[in-house]
Amino acid sequence: MTKKVAVLTSGGDAPGMNACIRAIVLACERADYSVLGYMHGFNGLLHQEYRLLDGRSVHNLIQQGGTMLRSARCKEFEGREEAKRAADNLRQLEVDTLIIIGGDGSFRGAVHLSQFWEGQLLGLPGTIDNDIQGTDVTIGYHTAIETAVTSIDKVRDTADSFERIFLVEVMGRRAGFLGLNAALASAADYVILPELFESEEQTLEAIMQQLTKRRRERGDVSYIIVLAENLWPKGVNDLAEQLTKLTESEVKPVILGHVQRGGSPVSQDRLLATRLGAYAVSLVGSDISGIMIGECHGKPVKVPLPSTWQKRKPLDEFTVSTMESLMNNRYA
Ligand SMILES: Nc1ncnc2c1ncn2[C@@H]1O[C@H](COP(=O)(O)OP(=O)(O)O)[C@@H](O)[C@H]1O
Ligand SMILES: O=P(O)(O)OC[C@H]1O[C@](O)(COP(=O)(O)O)[C@@H](O)[C@@H]1O
After folding, report:
1. Residue 262: how many other CB atoms lie within 10 Å
2. Does 3.40.50.460 match the CATH number of domain 144-261?
3. Which of the chain's termini has less CB crowding within 10 Å, N or C?
C-alpha cells in the first residue's frame, strides 16, 4: 500500500538540510510514496502550511545552504492544545510518517506530538552544534567547522601582520564541538569550552601564563583565543577588556555568529544527509517510531528520541588531549 510522508525542518537551520530533504523526496518517489513538506518548522504543522514535493522540486538542491522548507523556533508548539491541533492536521492530510530534521529541541517537540498522534515519527539530526547524543555527527556540523576555520585563518593573517591578540567567538549553544575542532584545525593558541571551563580566574590565569612564557621565548607574536558562545559570564567584550588590561595590548573581539550556519554544505554533510534521509524512508511503514536515525562508525543507528537529549554528549577524548598538548597546555 502506498504511503504519505511529510517532512519538516525545525530549530537552527544547518547546511545539508536541503540535501536531506532531497534524499527523502527522491527515496519516496522511488518507493512510490507521496511526500509533502511542512513549511516553517512546527508552525507549518499548526497552520497546515505545506507544499507537495517531487523530484522536480528538489532539482539542483543538494549544494544549497539553508532549508527550502524554512525553519523556525515555535514556542507555541509546546502547548497541549497546539500539539493536538497539529495531530488533527496530520490526520486530515492522512500523513503516515512525519520526518523531523532538527536538533534536540525539535526531537522534544516530536515526543510531545506523539502523545496526540499515532502516526510514525522519525527524527534526523540537523544542527551545527553536534550536541545530539547517539550520533557521531550531525548534519551541518562539518560545514560549520569549515566556515569557522576559514574565518579564523583570515583573522590569523591580520593578527600576524600586527602581532595582535584576537578573541574569536564561535557558536555551539552550550556545547564545545564546533569550538574545539575549529580551534584545533585553525591552529589557534587557546580555546575556552563549556565542557572544560572551570572559572573566569582559572581561565585568565592559564592564558596569561601561556602568553607570558610564549612572549619570553618568541617575542611579540599573534595570539588567537577561540571562545564558545554563552560561556563567558559577561560576554566576549568583557573578556576582551579584561585581557587588554592584563596583557597590556589591545585585544580585538570577533563574533563569527550566524555566518557559521550558512553556505553550501561540504561533502561530508551532503553525504551524511543523503544517507540518513534515504535510510529514514526505508523505515517508512515499519513499526519503528519515536526514534532518531543517526550514524555511528559509519553505520546507521536508531536511537529513542529521549536518549538524544537525556545525557550530555561528551567531547571526543582523543581530540581534547591533542588540543591540550598542542594548544592550551603547550607551554605548561
Ligand atoms: N519541550 C518541548 N515541547 C514541545 N516542543 C518543543 C519542546 N522543545 C522544543 N520544542 C519545539 O522545537 C523547536 C526547536 O527547538 P530548538 O531548541 O529551538 O532547536 P533545535 O531543534 O535546533 O534544538 C522549538 O521552537 C519548539 O517548537
Ligand atoms: O539563530 P538563533 O535563534 O539566534 O540561535 C542561535 C543558536 O542556534 C545555533 O546556531 C544552532 O542551534 P540549534 O541547532 O540547537 O538550534 C546555536 O549554535 C546558537 O546558539
Report:
1. 15
2. yes
3. N
DSSP 247-292: HTSPEEEEE-GGGGG-SPPPHHHHHHHHHHHHHHHHTTTSS--SEE
Q: What's the gap in Å between 13 CA and the centre of ligand 2? A: 8
The three grid cell numbers given for residue 195, joined into one nine-digit string: 565542557
Tell me, using a 6 A CB cutoff, whether residue 177 lines ligand 1. no
Residue 148 CA, ligand 2 centroid: distance in Å: 15
Closest Cα to atom 20 of ligand 2:
173
Same fold, 4-140+265-310 and 144-261: yes
Catalytic residues: 129
Mutation test of ligand 1: which of 77, 111, 139, 313 has the most ligand atoms closer than 8 Å to its C-beta?
Answer: 77
Q: What is the pLDDT along the chain (332 residues), one digit of tens a residue?
A: 699 999 999 999 999 999 999 999 999 999 999 999 999 999 999 999 999 999 999 999 999 999 999 999 999 999 999 999 999 999 999 999 999 999 999 999 999 999 999 999 999 999 999 999 999 999 999 999 999 999 999 999 999 999 999 999 999 999 999 999 999 999 999 999 999 999 999 999 999 999 999 999 988 889 999 999 999 999 999 999 999 999 999 999 999 999 999 999 999 999 999 999 999 999 999 999 999 999 999 999 999 999 999 999 999 999 999 999 999 999 98
Task: Please report, for the chain, the start and end positions of each structural domain, with discontinuous segments joined by +.
Answer: 4-140+265-310, 144-261
List residues near ligand 2 (CB under 6 A): 11-12, 73, 103, 127-129, 171-173, 229, 261
Choose the CATH number for 4-140+265-310 among 3.30.360.10, 3.40.50.450, 2.60.120.620, 3.40.630.30: 3.40.50.450
Number of C-alpha atoms within 13 angstroms, CB side, residue 27? 22
